[in-house]
DNA sequence: GCCGAAATTCACCATGCGGTGAATAATGCG
DNA sequence: CGCATTATTCACCGCATGGTGAATTTCGGC
């Protein structure tokens, strides 16, 4: 039956929701507009009508999770000696909250396409990790920051956090995948804390 | 020009080599038979002739890297107190050696498709990590092994190793992505070593 | 030197993709 | 009420995909 439906339309929101899941499950290239539309129970043409194209849909999906400053507030205000615990705990909350499916879509696409990986890396460093490192690293409090050292801490901490996410949410390695937050924080946070604020041995400069 | 070429044919090997790279760069779904054939400089029909189908090519690509026992020999014979260093060092060698491109294809596909993820997880645990953990974990030497504790160590160590690989080879987080092996081992190995042989605090059982 | 097997290319096919343009029905503002 | 706007479906298009069948050439054992 052609033509507009009676009542207020929720199609746009339902498309975004369906796309969020499809992108998360199959990646941005693997997801198809036809599947997304079918999941939302509407005609594929609605994607063009509401978003112009598949890329427009992808942008709409990314809009919600991209409020990192508000989301990472707990990390930005944690005392330096507890930043590891708070970071890991916040990460778990975010990935298991309603926005997690959007994050999964982002990471999946980053692995799929090097172009996306560039964007994610930039976002991760400039918005998520570096601000934290710059604030809590011991070098920062001793006057001279030494950006190289800060970048080392950032990439090392990120490697553990990303590994946690990969192991827990993608590869589903047990028992890490099913362990409760307390257990994960208790075991992984010390590593992150060490990378962020512990002594860093630099064998190249000595 | 139709018909067989003079001389001995290297097409099959060239197809596998081209496929290895294409799969690594785009994932098993993202790679196309036409691109692979073009990269190898042959007709797409050769894939059917030599491997039957795209899936057959994928299997051929996986054959080489699947000799984990020989590859991980250094890890299997490392003294327990150095297993972290040896594991990380061997991992770097493998991922940057000729087989690395095959590993990248595997991990990329694991993230792309949950079905592949199951296979990779099984392989990782049963063939790569668990044997090492079972050998070096302090519990193993005190009589009763406690499989749950061993699995905890395995998943935690795997999370750091996978995170290292993701950060270095996929997201290319600097300086971790360009650092030499010594530096990476010096900074990451202690974490892995701790997960494998250090004290594990289990807050749930006390 | 013959002849079956292997190697290679070519011309297609059905399918699914993202996207386009038009037709139709309900909404909501004046 | 009247009418522009919006929402929705439909019938297509061009393209790329993986795959098929046949034709053609060389290789290698006898």
What does this entry look like structurally?
The structure is a homodimer of 206-residue chains. Chain A is mainly alpha-helical and 206 residues long. Chain A folds into two domains: 52 residues, Homeodomain-like (Arc Repressor Mutant, subunit A, Orthogonal Bundle), CATH 1.10.10.60; 130 residues, Orthogonal Bundle (Tetracycline Repressor, domain 2). Chain A is 72% helix and 0% strand. Chain A has twelve helices and no strands. In chain A, helix 1 runs parallel beside helix 8, helix 3 crosses helix 4 and helix 7 packs across helix 12. Chain A is elongated and about 70 Å long. Chains A and B meet through helix 1, helix 8, helix 9, helix 11 and helix 12 of A and helix 1, helix 8, helix 9, helix 11 and helix 12 of B. The structure holds a DNA duplex (30 and 30 nucleotides). Chains A, B: Keywords: DNA-binding. Chains A, B: Pfam families: TetR_C_16, TetR_N. Chains A, B: This is TetR family transcriptional regulator.
Short overview:
Chain A has 206 residues and is mainly α. In chain A, 72% of the residues lie in helices and 0% in strands.
Which features would summarize this protein structure in a list?
mainly alpha, 0% strand, 2 domains, elongated, Tetracycline Repressor, domain 2, 206 residues, 12 helices, DNA-binding, homodimer, Arc Repressor Mutant, subunit A
* Radius of gyration from the alpha-carbon trace of chain A, in angstroms: 20 Å
Terminal CA distance of chain A: 76 Å
Contiguous helical run count of chain A: 12
Topology-level CATH name of the largest domain in chain A: Tetracycline Repressor, domain 2
Q: What structural category arises from helix and sheet content of chain A?
A: mainly alpha
Shape of chain A: elongated
Oligomeric grouping of the chains: homodimer
- CATH class categorisation of the largest domain in chain A: Mainly Alpha
Order of helices and strands of chain A: HHHHHHHHHHHH
Average pLDDT score of chain A: 86
Number of strands of chain A: 0
List the chains of the largest interface with their residue counts.
A-B, 54 and 54 residues
Number of domains of chain A: 2
Taking the sheet with the most strands of chain A, its summary is: none
Portion of residues in beta strands of chain A equals under 5%
Domain HTH tetR-type (chains A, B): 9-69
DNA-binding region (chains A, B): 32-51
Protein name (chains A, B): TetR family transcriptional regulator
Keywords (chains A, B): DNA-binding
């Amino acid at each position: 039956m052609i033509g507009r439906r009676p009542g207020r339309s929720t199609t746009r929101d339902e498309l975004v929701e369906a796309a969020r899941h499809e992108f998360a499950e199959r990646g941005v290239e693997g997801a198809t507009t036809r599947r997304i539309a079918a999941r939302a129970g509407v005609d594929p043409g609605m994607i063009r009508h509401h978003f112009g194209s598949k890329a427009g849909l992808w942008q709409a999906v990314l809009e919600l999770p991209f409020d990192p400053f508000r989301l990472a507030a707990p990390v930005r205000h944690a005392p330096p000696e507890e930043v590891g615990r708070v970071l890991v705990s916040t990460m778990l909350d975010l990935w298991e909250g309603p926005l997690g499916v959007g994050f999964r879509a982002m990471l999946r696409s980053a692995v799929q396409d090097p172009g996306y990986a560039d964007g994610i890396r930039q976002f991760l460093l400039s918005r998520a990790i570096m601000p934290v490192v710059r604030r809590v690293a011991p070098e920062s409090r001793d006057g001279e920051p030494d950006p190289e050292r800060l970048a080392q801490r950032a990439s090392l901490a990120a490697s553990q956090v990303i590994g946690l996410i990969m192991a827990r949410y993608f590869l589903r390695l047990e028992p890490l995948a099913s362990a409760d937050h307390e257990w994960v924080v208790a075991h992984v946070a010390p590593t992150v804390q060490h990378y962020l604020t512990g002594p860093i041995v630099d064998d190249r400069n000595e």
